[in-house]
Design goal:
single chain, 35% helix, 330 residues, Rossmann fold, 5-stranded parallel beta sheet, alpha/beta, binds (2R)-2,3-dihydroxypropanoic acid, 2 domains, 7-stranded parallel beta sheet
Length: 330
């Protein structure tokens, strides 16, 4: 009997075919709509494996309905939408897709930083609505990137990749992280500092920490108050790390200069969200890792993780190694 897997979004044909070689696959066919909770609750009852996205809340209540489930293969590096503790308690493996999206997400982070600093979206809108009457010395002037100071909060793989890009722009780079990284300091010329110093000194602050209960609203009113009036905040991690109400007021009242946001506390962000009304905010729909090559590789890695786990092997990207694949082979 082939193991049964449930896949929560339409996947590339090649990846589906690979899963179908050894598994009985049921698929949520919609490409641009998430699977409704009631469908997921129904489908998970029979599933041995789940291939999911960050749009699904995999919580303890859902896992209670999954008596056969051995592995959850997540198509993302971040797994804050999965209750790891509950999965571990039930002996369910959870995997993610680290590494493969590092450079792509760092590219997007830097693109967002530059777009925000040089007001690219605002300038493009200005031109398209026919407002451009003449070249003018201070028209749509922004902030310099080259030679400025960057503060990176969270020096993981993506943080380091952003720091490498910053070095090519001759930026001074500060970082704050749970642990110091002497090797990265040495190789990339980074300077470690506490959060308050980083916020005070940086022209650009990039949020690159994972979203956990401990990092929720890490950047709120007090932190924003420490930043320079000319500073720009960039977030390509998870929306909940910033208190969006505090950010709105800081931007609207000119306490900081601008923000570039790829992620929001609620996604999709409602069209009437106050942050979307501000001209000094560049917003994107969570596309950090969205290059064709990277998204296909992420799906392929997630599929490999799933197949290895179901075959009784330890998947390469197991986030809860307390659960051993061999124990879950039922
Ligand atoms: C992730 O992998 O966590 C990103 O947010 C989506 O690529």
């Amino acid at each position: 009997m082939k193991p049964k897997i449930y896949v929560t979004r339409k996947l590339n044909e090649g990846i589906l075919a690979k899963l179908e070689e050894t598994c009985e696959v049921t698929l949520w066919e919609e490409e641009n709509l998430p699977v409704p909770r009631e469908v997921l609750e129904r489908e998970i009852r029979e599933a041995d494996g789940l291939f999911c996205l960050l749009t699904e809340q995999i919580d303890a209540a859902l896992l209670e309905k999954a008596p056969r489930l051995k592995i959850i293969a997540n198509l993302a590096v971040g797994y804050n939408h999965i209750d790891i503790e509950a999965a571990t308690a039930k002996g369910i493996m959870v995997t993610n897709t680290p590494g493969v999206l590092t450079e792509t997400t760092a590219d997007l982070t830097f693109a967002l930083l530059m777009a925000t600093a040089r007001r690219l979206v605002e300038s493009s809108d200005y031109l398209r609505r026919g407002a451009w009457v003449t070249w003018s010395p201070m028209l749509l002037t922004g902030q310099d990137v080259y030679g400025s100071t960057l503060g990176i909060i969270g020096l993981g793989r993506i943080g380091e990749a952003v720091a490498r890009r910053a070095k090519a722009f001759d930026m001074k780079v500060y970082y704050h992280n749970r642990t110091r990284k002497p090797e990265a300091e040495e190789q990339l010329g980074l300077e470690y500092c506490d959060m308050a110093t980083l916020l005070r000194e940086s022209d650009f602050v990039c949020i690159l920490v994972p979203y956990t209960p401990g990092t929720r609203h890490l950047i709120g009113h007090n932190e924003l108050a420490l930043m320079k009036q000319s500073a720009i905040l960039i977030n390509t991690s998870r929306g909940g790390i910033i208190d969006e109400t505090a950010l709105y007021y800081a931007l609207a009242e000119g306490k900081i200069w601008a923000a570039g946001l790829d992620v929001f506390e609620q996604e999709p962000v409602p069209a009437n969200h106050p942050l979307l009304t501000l001209p000094n905010v560049v917003t994107l729909p969570h596309i950090g890792s969205a290059s064709i090559k990277t998204r296909l590789r992420m799906a392929d890695i997630a599929a490999d993780n799933l197949l290895k786990g179901l075959a009784g092997l330890t998947p390469p990207n197991l986030v809860n190694p307390q659960v051993d694949a061999r124990d879950t082979k039922r």
